Amino acid sequence: GSFVIETLTDLVEEAVLAEFDRLSERGGVLGAMETMYQRNKIQEESLLYERLKHDGRLPIVGVNCFLPDPASGEPETAPALIRSTEAEKRQQLEELALFRALHEDERPGALERLRLAARQGENLFSILMESVRVLTLGEITHELYGQGGKYRRAI
d(Cα 117, Cα 113) in Å, to the nearest integer? Predict the structure, then answer.
């Protein structure tokens, strides 16, 4: 029952209701999607976040405030990158080939179910949960790109 908490809750509720109104004005969620309202809103918020971060109005420790002092003489150390060895890369490729061989008979049917679900605009979640048992991420991604194309940011 704190005044501050109640006030903040009211502000959040007002902002959510205002956003619902903006969606309704655009014909609901589907209407807003057709005009790319949600995508544009996300891009605007992302740009605002970056602007606030870069000009310091949004302090982030270690990114734009409380940074190491270059005058201290201590060198800034970048984290060491961990690279896969050739043996690890080879092992991954062998496991991929084994996975594909084990599921060779199931893959065409799973790809077809995924293709049809994507083409018909069905909810893909359950299809994807089944698909990952027999298809690789690359196969799934390639099929979905084939049905819906790749995202291109509107600038």
Answer: 6
